[in-house]
């Protein structure tokens, strides 16, 4: 009879009690929890989520509109104080309240744009990579054409020509012009996945093309696709701010960080707080999404884990 206890046998085998295979997502979450970058981005995005989901908990919406009496011209361009933490703008509106409530339209554009462009790109890339041949040739040429169209320039032309202001106008521009990176990523992942042993085995067992694409190949593109979607989300928030700054996105009486920056540019040297606070929140939000995407990419990439 061996003197070694079951616990000792597990330790000798190189495993501690309670260790079980975690899988790809489990390993990714285990690595994320140990990442300082992930926690920094998570804390920043927690406060962004509060501003988007429950802005009234942080600031009174009435302080953002002269229609409700919350903006007084007599309070125009007041410096930050105990009464107005971020000061006031030219209309006498509270910059802190504007900044908090301006997060929702900016982030909504980013979320909707990331979801729609990732979905479109995933379908195009999956079909092109799986079928190959002339289908891949045609779709790849279409991708190349859209890849050559600058997002900002194309968006300016579309919004100017079609007169599509507001959140849905910007989302429409992103849906038309922003899906190319996702398509290229999913296509390359699909080409790699269709020749893997598990795909060949599933085909030999009689799996159809639809099952092969959506049950065996597409799941392997989910990780990289999520990373791209998170990073794109931050980029799309910045794109919305750019369009609104140019007067082509969200327009008064609506407001977002972009419209606040546009309104503040003429009084920057007189009242720099009117620009610095919305621009600072915009920059931190974009940075948080990029950091989260980088942390997720490192955790989901097995090759990076093996090289660590």
How does this structure look, described?
It is a single chain. The chain has 308 residues and is mainly α. It has a domain at 100-307: MetI-like (MetI-like fold, Orthogonal Bundle), CATH 1.10.3720. It is built from 16 helices and no strands. The chain has helices spanning 6-12, 23-33, 36-53, 55-58, 95-101, 103-131, 133-147, 151-162, 167-177, 180-193, 197-204, 209-217, 219-245, 257-264, 273-300, 302-307. The longest helix is centred in the middle third of the chain and has 29 residues, at 103-131.
Q: Regarding CATH, which class of the domain at 100-307?
A: Mainly Alpha
Q: Work out the helix count.
A: 16
Strand content: under 5%
Principal-axis shape equals elongated
End-to-end CA span: 41 Å
Q: What value does the average pLDDT take?
A: 81
What's the story with the biggest beta sheet? Answer: none
CATH superfamily (homologous) name of the domain at 100-307: MetI-like
Helix content: 55-70%
How many beta strands in the DSSP annotation? 0
CATH topology descriptor of the domain at 100-307: MetI-like fold
Pattern of helices and strands: HHHHHHHHHHHHHHHH
Low-confidence stretches: 4-20
Structural class: mainly alpha
CATH architecture annotation of the domain at 100-307: Orthogonal Bundle
Global Rg:
25 Å
Break the fold down into its secondary structure elements and pairings.
Elements lengths: L5 H7 L10 H11 L2 H18 L1 H4 L36 H7 L1 H29 L1 H15 L3 H12 L4 H11 L2 H14 L3 H8 L4 H9 L1 H27 L11 H8 L8 H28 L1 H6 L1
Helix pairs in contact: 2-15, 3-6, 3-15, 5-15, 6-7, 6-9, 6-10, 6-13, 7-10, 8-9, 10-13, 11-12, 13-14, 13-15, 14-15
